[in-house]
């Protein structure tokens, strides 16, 4: 009996302690969010839909990252689906995800000049909202309000997605000067019917004047990595030189040199 009572008391006080710790952590997270929202000099970087989506949505999509003192503090993503905007906001503190706000915002309808009911994509309301709090890479609390929009798949794995988007934004942010130099059309000097175009972090390849494929890219210590979405293959090129006129890439596998001239 005494042993049972002792075990009960240990568990009881452990639960109290855990609850107090959780409330303290949640309070700190809310303070950190308030600090982030108070920043007025964010440096904003964006990803084009092709950069963060593998499939284009029914309506527009955008993703913006907000940097303060060279570190990502917040990501705001909006994806326009057929019936609603899906709006997700991620907060980071010391490069760690601390909070996610996820919303389903259905479109309102209006009457056109012919008396027909049509979707007004500029007007929405929040039908469903979930709030997710994270600490040390684990979700510690969740709050849900309303009901999801029918037909929309509920997102749940926010942590891995947030880290993936952070990696894409950080890659673009910390290599912004190189990406800026790469933008535009480059003609392959050994065969002028072949050329490449860089738009954001996407590389488009053209062979014999015709579109061949598109690859996502990232830059790692002067190496341009090109890869297809959903494909494990990665093509690596050392950026030997890039200026306003010439781009020189060296294939790190074959050691072949590729020289391009800027045409636009």
Structural description of this entry:
The N and C termini lie far apart (84 Å). The protein has helices at residues 2-38, 49-52, 158-174, 176-182, and strands at 43-47, 61-68, 71-80, 84-93, 96-111, 117-124, 128-135, 138-146, 184-188, 195-199, 202-207, 210-220, 223-227, 234-242, 246-251, 257-262. It has 264 residues and is an alpha+beta fold. The protein is globular, with a radius of gyration of 24 Å. Residues 8-14 have low confidence and may be disordered. It is built from four helices and 16 strands. The longest helix has 37 residues, at 2-38. Helices cover 25% and strands 48% of the residues.
Order of helices and strands: HEHEEEEEEEHHEEEEEEEE
Largest sheet: 8 strands, antiparallel
Q: What is the CA-atom radius of gyration, in angstroms?
A: 24 Å
- Low-pLDDT sequence parts: 8-14
Please tally the β strands and state the result: 16
Structural class: alpha+beta
Strand content: over 45%
Globular, elongated, flat, extended or rod-shaped: what is the shape?
A: globular
Mean pLDDT across the residues is 91
Helix content: 10-25%
Quaternary state, please? single chain
Number of helices: 4
The separation of the N and C termini measures 84 Å
């Amino acid at each position: 009996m005494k042993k049972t009572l002792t075990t009960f008391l240990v568990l009881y006080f452990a639960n109290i302690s855990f609850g107090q710790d959780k409330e303290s952590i949640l309070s700190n997270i809310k303070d950190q969010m308030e600090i982030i929202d108070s920043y007025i000099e964010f440096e904003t970087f964006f990803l084009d839909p092709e950069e963060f989506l593998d499939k284009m949505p029914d309506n527009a999509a955008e993703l913006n990252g907000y940097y303060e003192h060279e570190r990502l503090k917040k990501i705001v993503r909006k994806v326009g689906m057929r019936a609603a905007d899906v709006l997700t906001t991620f907060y980071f503190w010391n490069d760690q995800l601390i909070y996610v706000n996820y919303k389903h915002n259905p479109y309102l309808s209006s009457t056109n000049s012919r008396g027909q009911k049509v979707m007004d994509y500029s007007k929405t309301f929040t039908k469903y909202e979930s709030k997710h709090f994270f600490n040390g890479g684990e979700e510690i609390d969740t709050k849900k309000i309303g009901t999801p929009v029918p037909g929309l798949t509920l997102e749940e794995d926010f942590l891995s997605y947030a880290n993936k988007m952070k990696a894409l934004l950080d890659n673009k942010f910390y290599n912004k000067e190189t990406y800026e130099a790469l933008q535009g059309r480059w003609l392959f000097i050994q065969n002028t019917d072949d050329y490449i175009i860089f738009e954001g972090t996407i590389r488009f390849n053209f062979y014999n004047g015709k579109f061949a494929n598109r690859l996502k890219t990232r830059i790692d210590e002067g190496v341009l990595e090109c890869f297809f979405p959903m494909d494990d293959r990665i093509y690596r090129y050392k950026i030997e030189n890039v200026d306003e006129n010439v781009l020189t890439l060296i294939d790190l596998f074959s050691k072949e040199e590729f020289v391009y001239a800027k045409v636009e």
